[in-house]
């Protein structure tokens, strides 16, 4: 694989994420031509990527392991594509391809946008179905419900959606994407604005979670999954590499306890690989870390220490059960 990375920070400009995705959906009624079928589709993700980490967590929480297979790319990629360098011979064992780019080009030989993960591929054709990560996890919770494990949590309960949706939008714009707006800012002004917005949101979350165990309701929801994948990368990557350095996560008592609570919940911490996370950011973003040096720290032992969040009540899985 070429080590030539892409350009992530454009001088003089603020970072603007391309949010145009392949919006085909896999649904129970198959209205887009892709009905839910056990064994037909393959989720391709990377443990390094926060957007992909979401899908790995949700798939595990819902018990879709035997219904939707999982292919994992390596933690680094070049400007063209993620590659299957963790697999024998560098080939995905189901799709038989070296790069996920091949599945994109099978769908559209002139695909004009970034080759992203997570992505769901139709194994009967080898073509990408969707890379719309935000809709993907919601559909796993709703459209795939018939195939959830017994005791699976309802991560997108109808009676909470009116409260959840604006919270998830704010988490996306200010936190999930906010750290990238800091890290890829091309001017001091763009960075300062992104930094202030990020910390305004993190202070809001610190206050919100001081009196409640989870973001919405008294059980785990999609909102918690979306926040977790940024928090778990914060001290290892975003604090230093992306210059989000007002505080470390470990210096924010509420968010640090909340993140540890989730990390120690089956389905969350067991999907996290800190070595892959650090390798991805520090190696791939060669324009902002030209040395390619991956830091040895921070000390990650604290993630398994007691968090005390049980005192706030709430039950992670409600009337259900943790994944096996």
UniProtKB/TrEMBL annotation:
<feature type="active site" description="Nucleophile">
    <location>
        <position position="49"/>
    </location>
</feature>
<dbReference type="InterPro" id="IPR036282">
    <property type="entry name" value="Glutathione-S-Trfase_C_sf"/>
</dbReference>
<dbReference type="GO" id="GO:0005737">
    <property type="term" value="C:cytoplasm"/>
</dbReference>
<dbReference type="InterPro" id="IPR047047">
    <property type="entry name" value="GST_Omega-like_C"/>
</dbReference>
<feature type="site" description="Lowers pKa of active site Cys">
    <location>
        <position position="238"/>
    </location>
</feature>
<protein>
    <submittedName>
        <fullName>Putative glutathione S-transferase</fullName>
    </submittedName>
</protein>
<dbReference type="InterPro" id="IPR016639">
    <property type="entry name" value="GST_Omega/GSH"/>
</dbReference>
<dbReference type="InterPro" id="IPR040079">
    <property type="entry name" value="Glutathione_S-Trfase"/>
</dbReference>
<feature type="site" description="Lowers pKa of active site Cys">
    <location>
        <position position="281"/>
    </location>
</feature>
<keyword id="KW-0808">Transferase</keyword>
<dbReference type="GO" id="GO:0004364">
    <property type="term" value="F:glutathione transferase activity"/>
</dbReference>
<feature type="active site" description="Proton donor/acceptor">
    <location>
        <position position="180"/>
    </location>
</feature>
<feature type="region of interest" description="Disordered">
    <location>
        <begin position="297"/>
        <end position="324"/>
    </location>
</feature>
<dbReference type="Pfam" id="PF13409">
    <property type="entry name" value="GST_N_2"/>
</dbReference>
<dbReference type="InterPro" id="IPR010987">
    <property type="entry name" value="Glutathione-S-Trfase_C-like"/>
</dbReference>
<feature type="domain" description="GST C-terminal">
    <location>
        <begin position="157"/>
        <end position="281"/>
    </location>
</feature>
<dbReference type="Pfam" id="PF13410">
    <property type="entry name" value="GST_C_2"/>
</dbReference>
<dbReference type="InterPro" id="IPR004045">
    <property type="entry name" value="Glutathione_S-Trfase_N"/>
</dbReference>
<feature type="binding site">
    <location>
        <position position="82"/>
    </location>
    <ligand>
        <name>glutathione</name>
    </ligand>
</feature>
<dbReference type="InterPro" id="IPR036249">
    <property type="entry name" value="Thioredoxin-like_sf"/>
</dbReference>
């Amino acid at each position: 694989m070429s080590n030539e990375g892409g350009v992530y920070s454009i001088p003089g400009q603020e970072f603007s994420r391309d949010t145009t995705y392949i919006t085909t959906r896999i649904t129970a009624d198959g209205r887009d031509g892709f009905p839910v079928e056990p064994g037909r589709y393959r989720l391709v993700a990377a443990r390094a990527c926060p957007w992909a980490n979401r899908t790995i967590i949700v798939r595990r929480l819902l018990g879709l392991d035997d219904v939707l297979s999982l292919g994992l790319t390596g933690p680094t990629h070049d400007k063209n594509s993620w590659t299957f360098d963790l697999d024998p011979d560098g080939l995905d064992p189901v799709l038989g391809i070296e790069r996920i780019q091949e599945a994109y080009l099978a769908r559209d030989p002139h695909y004009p946008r970034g080759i992203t993960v997570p992505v769901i591929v139709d194994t009967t054709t080898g073509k990408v179905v969707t890379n719309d990560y935000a809709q993907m996890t919601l559909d796993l919770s709703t459209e795939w419900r018939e195939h959830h494990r017994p005791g699976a949590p309802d991560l997108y309960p109808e009676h909470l959606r009116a409260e959840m949706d604006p919270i998830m939008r704010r988490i996306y714009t200010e936190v999930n994407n906010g750290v990238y707006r800091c890290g890829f800012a091309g001017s001091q002004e763009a960075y300062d604005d992104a930094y202030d917005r990020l910390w305004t949101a993190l202070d809001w979350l610190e206050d919100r979670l001081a009196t409640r165990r989870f973001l919405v309701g008294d059980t785990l929801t999609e909102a918690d999954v979306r926040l977790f994948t940024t928090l778990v990368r914060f001290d290892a990557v975003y604090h230093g590499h992306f210059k989000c350095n007002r505080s470390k996560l470990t210096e924010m008592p509420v968010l640090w306890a909340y993140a540890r609570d989730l990390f120690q919940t089956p389905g969350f911490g067991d999907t996290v690989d800190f070595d892959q996370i650090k390798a991805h950011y520090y190696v791939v973003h060669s324009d902002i870390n030209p040395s390619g040096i991956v830091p040895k720290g921070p000390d990650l032992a604290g993630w398994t220490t007691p968090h005390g969040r049980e005192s706030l009540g709430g039950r992670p899985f409600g009337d259900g059960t943790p994944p096996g």
